[in-house]
Amino acid sequence: MTLGFTLAAADGTARAGTLHTAHGDVPTPVFMPVGTAGTVKAMTAEAVRSTGARMVLGNTYHLMLRPGAERIAALGGLHRFMDWHGPILTDSGGFQVMSLSQLRRLDEGGVTFRSHLDGSEQRLTPERAVAIQHALGADVTMVLDECTPFPATKAEAAASMRLSMRWAARSRGAFVPRPGHGLFGIVQGGVYPALRAESVAALAAIGFDGYAVGGLAVGEGQETMFAMLDVTVPLLPADRPRYLMGVGTPADIVGAVARGIDMFDCVIPTRSGRTGRAYTSRGVLNMRNARFADDPRPLDPDCACPACARHSRAYLHHLIKSGEMLGPMLLTWHNVAYYQDLMRGLRAAILDGRFAAHAAALAARWAQGDGA
After folding, report:
1. How far is CA 233 from CA 15, 212, 227, 371, in A?
2. In whole angstroms, what is the distance from residue 357 CA to residue 369 CA?
3. Per annotation, catalytic residue among 11, 91, 139, 295
4. 3-state per-residue secondary structure call for 158-198
5. What sign does the CA torsion over 252, 254, 259, 265 have?
6. 34: CB partners within 8 A, 6+ apart
7. How many Å apart are CA 173 and CA 67, to the nearest integer?
8. Which DSSP symbol is given to 345?
């Protein structure tokens, strides 16, 4: 294994550890802001760092199309290109294989698709996906997989999962080990426990630096997602990091940490910030709502980000209603900061042996609301 991971504590099945990468250590559980095209939307790299974020995600599909992995490599790699000096995880393009299904053709060798930018034909194979991520300089590379859509029959999910397992083996063969860099396998299998177990066994036999759970948060609902984690996570190697892809809301994250997940990413905090929604210690606030027009209070009194420390809810409401770009910027900054605060609190609770009480207190505060 070329990527280090140490466990510091467990509280029930919730875990606190440290991921050791070429670009620094990352305390877990960790939430990675999504930097799809080499930027966390509406934020500078310095602003992202100020929230306490230690690791971000980049998107192979988008970066291979524009500006191109070779160009980024020639300019010093993705870390230098986007001014991010910490670790970067790059996804493989597998999610786009699913989401752009009208533009692609899938076969045993890989996927052929039309660029959403100019319609040009592109080919992505397990080997090419790994090579692109190598060129980008990713600390964590993801295998190419097919993200099984929901709903899918058991036969459809089985065929999709087994193709992904064959691609995982090819991705492993293409990966070039380097100190502090690693390759993660991705568990698939839809909402079928037996298929999830088969997928874990196949990946463990190949051997990876970490294991991701994919194909969830695609429409199945939180209860089903948690049920799949209940049957999947206990089967994963205990000494390797566990990553739940594309999740989620604060409640999703707390529930997944309780089930032994270490790593998360999602567009929710940044996308919500751009549409006027703020995640706070008192629940979700829609800053377009007229009730905030005369509200002098900070967005979240428990947050020290610039949106909360320097501005009122009334001002943030004004920015959003006026279409001023500063509004989405400040709300995005706040949401990313809130998610980082959430992860720090969860880690501290695990280390102190009070995770269950902390999770219950979070849920009770969200349910109570902000009193306005």
Report:
1. 12, 10, 10, 38
2. 19
3. 91
4. HHHHHHHHHHHHHHHHHCCCCCCCEEEEEECCCCCHHHHHH
5. positive
6. 40, 56, 57, 59, 265, 266, 267, 270
7. 27
8. H
Instruction: Give the residue extent of every domain in the chain.
Output: 4-266, 277-368
To the query of whether residue 265 is one of the catalytic residues in this protein, the response is yes
Name the 3-class secondary structure at 61: helix
Residue of 209, 252, 262, 265 marked catalytic: 265
Q: Which of 203, 270, 233 is nearest to 15 (CA)?
A: 233
CB 210 within 8 A of CB 5: yes
**Residue 253 corresponds to which tokens in the numbers above?**
């994250």
Given a cut of 80, whether residue 288 has pLDDT beyond it is yes
Whether residue 145 lies in the annotated active site: no
Q: For residue range 178-233, what is the model confidence (pLDDT) as tens digits? A: 999 999 999 999 999 999 999 999 999 999 999 999 999 999 999 999 999 999 99
Sign of CA dihedral 162, 167, 170, 174: negative
User: What is the fold of 4-266?
Assistant: TIM Barrel (3.20.20)
Q: Give CA–CA dist 153/5, Å, rounded.
A: 36
Measured CA to CA, the distance from residue 21 to residue 213 in angstroms comes to 20
Mean pLDDT of the chain: 96
